[in-house]
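Minutes, project huddle
Topic: does the predicted pose make sense with coenzyme A bound?
PN asked that the exact inputs be recorded in the minutes so nobody has to dig through chat later. Recorded below.
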Amino acid sequence: MLLDLGDGLRIRPWRRDDLDALLRHANNPKIAGNLRDQFPHPYTRRDGIDYLNYVRAMDVPMSLAVEYEIEAIGGIGFKLGVDIARLSVEMGYWLAEPYWGRGLTTRAVIAAADWAFGNYGVVRIFAIAFSHNVASMRVLEKAGFEREGLLRRSAIKNGLVLDQVMYSKVR
Ligand SMILES: CC(C)(COP(=O)(O)OP(=O)(O)OC[C@H]1O[C@@H](n2cnc3c(N)ncnc32)[C@H](O)[C@@H]1OP(=O)(O)O)[C@@H](O)C(=O)NCCC(=O)NCCS
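Predicted holo structure (tokens), as shared on screen:
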């Protein structure tokens, strides 16, 4: 798959040769601090190799690279629901800090969500942000997601119990 969003922005599967860019951009506590603990900090070479091996082995791509100009600068991942939630998919994303504030993630999330509806055959895409993550909530709002509610004290991150906000887009 390849989504060409124009102006050098693309979404595509991760490749083995993304390792250097992945290590350079992912090793950032401001990124890991807003994601699940499965996104480690520090982000070691071993983490990068394991991650690329894991996502490249998937039959159906669930984890995609955001490429800008010459290299991967972020990721968008999906997790399909099971059982009665099987028509829902959760979306998560991150972007390398030097590229923040240019609207790139918003464009990527819009395109990836459109693609996910068709590709996974789901009727709901949701994303959950820590309630202090204003930039991510703004991305979701700009991308047409609706805020559904506050999940009180629903996460623990770096030793702090946090509220999260649930956003979704449905079809
Ligand atoms: C969240 C993240 C993906 C945003 O990426 P980005 O490319 O900078 O996003 P965009 O440029 O498309 O949009 C960001 C918006 O948030 C706004 N914003 C950023 N920081 C803000 C702040 N502290 N207060 C208010 N608004 C803020 C920007 O102004 C922009 O909105 P605007 O276009 O109305 O001005 C990026 O910061 C990131 O990777 N963070 C760490 C990982 C993360 O939080 N992932 C999401 C987990 S739910």
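Observations noted during the meeting:
- The mean pLDDT is 98.
- Helices lie at 19-26, 29-32, 45-56, 104-120, 134-142.
No decisions taken; revisit at the next huddle.
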